[in-house]
Amino acid sequence: MDNKVISLFSGCGGLDLGFTKAGFDVIWANEFDKQIWHTYERNHPQTTLDKRDIRHIPSGDIPDCIGIIGGSPCQSWSEAGKQKGINDDRGQLFLEYIRILKDKQPRFFLAENVSGMLHKKHQVAVANILAAFEEAGYRVSYRLLDTKYYGVPQERKRVIFIGFHVDLNKKFCFDKLKPASNILTLKQAIGDLWGCELPAIARSKTNGEICHIPNHEYMEGDFSSIYMSRNRVRLWDEVSFTIQASGRHSPIHPQANRMIQVGKDKWIFDSASPFPYRRLSVRESARIQTFPDEFIFYYQDLAAAYKMIGNAVSVNFAQEIAKYIKTYS
């Protein structure tokens, strides 16, 4: 059991893959969204995937392990959402994580969530969550981290909670989690994919096996006024904007010029751009999230693919944290 961990709210398994690459054995995972099941099972063949609603899974059905990892659904905490936090049904799923943690009592846990969780309106809720972690028997540290400093070519701020069981008399030190000496750019991440992409069929339907590079297809369609309220283009020598869980809000490929501001919260595409404005492809988004090319996403509608990728934990980021957790073992 020395390296065995379980994964909750697993999604397509970015966090799981990072821990696997760091030497952990993800033996069991839980994901309730049926659109994700095929992708998870094909890419994590050694992991048992439990497809039930986590609220209906008795702790006794979950294998013993040394660690629990996962991030509960983030929409209720998101800065882009209504920020209902713990008062939202999805926010309360965080408490299911704590229930299982309390019952299984592993050596450590890692929980990930969006930066919106730290908004001042959620201070009481976060304090209660920390108290629940401590009541379950853990010494907890947490910090807001940006993935661009940990081998990910993307600005992506996430809150990481890490706890060690009180019996271990240890506490995770984020100050010793050293950032990378260099920051990866879009050119390094996706430059070799340029020119091989395909537009989706009927705006958002997959080309399937026609794609020479698996999943290298992009959603088409109009851009909303909200989308056009700020620049959405990062250039080749920069890191990407955050990869969103929505194809319609995917960043623009760096082949195009930066957008031009023409008013308050109003930007337009540059008519002098040498190349057209298009969304990042599914594969480009996956590369920016540091999924390897052999990780294949399965879907009929590209919206499902962008959602899987945007909701995932960046693989390299997960691996760096997992490697440091391993030094405590």
Automatic annotation (TrEMBL):
Source organism, top-level taxon: Bacteria
Alphabetical UniProt keywords: Methyltransferase, Restriction system, S-adenosyl-L-methionine, Transferase
Protein name as it appears in the record: DNA (cytosine-5-)-methyltransferase
GO MF annotation: an example: DNA (cytosine-5-)-methyltransferase activity
Pfam families tied to this protein: DNA_methylase (PF00145)
Organism: Limnofasciculus baicalensis BBK-W-15
Enzyme nomenclature, EC number: 2.1.1.37
GO biological-process terms attached to the record: DNA restriction-modification system; methylation; negative regulation of gene expression via chromosomal CpG island methylation
Alphabetical list of PANTHER family matching this protein: CYTOSINE-SPECIFIC METHYLTRANSFERASE, DNA (CYTOSINE-5)-METHYLTRANSFERASE 1
Keyword S-adenosyl-L-methionine found: yes
Record: active site: C74
Family, per entry: Belongs to the class I-like SAM-binding methyltransferase superfamily. C5-methyltransferase family.
SUPFAM superfamilies: S-adenosyl-L-methionine-dependent methyltransferases
Enzyme class: transferase
